[in-house]
Design brief:
Layout lengths: L2 H9 L13 H5 L6 E5 L5 H8 L3 E6 L2 H14 L4 E4 L11 E7 L5 H14 E12 L3 H4 L13 H9 L6 E15 L2 E14 L3
Parallel strand pairs: 1-2, 1-4, 2-3, 4-5
Antiparallel strand pairs: 5-7, 6-7
Helix pairs in contact: 1-4
């Protein structure tokens, strides 16, 4: 990951991503009461902002100060409060437990991905949920868009293995699969293939 590249990318456009939450987030948290959430690699904040609008107490973490500044402006415009934390996720550790830990489209080499997922697993409170969505490895050959290097792509099984290696014994995998996402392009509608992993930590 390169902070300068992402700062330049976030600074070059009004919104790199649209303002609505990722399509997989609302249905995955529909059965959860609002609590404390953390959005890892929050970027411009669209998922964190949506969670805050649903009543969650939200922390958004990212290493791009430009992205977080934009997220803070959007939060003010939308009348919600989010705690924005400027941090490199390769060195981040939660200072409190979270009822929801989300990590969307954080595409990293395997060793770095394992480290971030381990920290994310440790951040989940008893009774809480970890949710990861990302570009799947097979998207490289069978889907549309996303990174074109297999080095930063993973499968659901890879993410599950990361979580199991994190040493959080009471974290149960409840969903691990490939999902499709329709993408509108100038050439028409295309289909992207993502991974989705949801784990829940047993309540004490």
């Amino acid at each position: 990951m390169n902070r300068d590249v992402w700062n330049e990318r976030y600074g070059a456009a009004d919104l790199v991503w649209h303002a609505a939450p990722n399509q997989f987030l609302p249905p995955e948290v529909a059965d959860r009461p609002a609590g404390r959430a953390v959005d890892l690699a929050a970027g411009e904040g669209r998922n964190a902002l949506w969670l805050a609008e649903q009543g969650w107490t939200v922390t958004g973490v990212d290493f791009s100060d430009v992205g977080l500044a934009k997220a803070a402006r959007l939060a003010a415009d939308r009348g919600v409060e989010v705690e924005w934390v400027l941090a490199d996720l390769l060195r981040w550790e939660a200072d409190r437990p979270y009822d929801l830990v989300i990590q969307f489209y954080l595409q990293l080499p395997a060793d770095e991905r394992r480290a971030v997922n381990a920290a994310a697993a440790r951040a989940v409170a008893p009774g809480g949920v970890f949710l990861a969505v990302g570009h799947d490895l097979v998207n490289l050959t069978e889907g549309y868009g996303g990174p074109q290097s297999p080095a930063v792509l993973a499968t659901p099984d890879d993410v599950v293995a990361d979580l199991r290696a994190a040493g959080v014994d009471d974290l149960e995998i409840v969903r691990s699969e490939r999902v499709t996402r329709r993408v509108s392009t100038e050439e028409g509608e295309r289909v992207a293939i993502d991974l989705l992993v949801r784990a829940e930590r047993r309540a004490r």
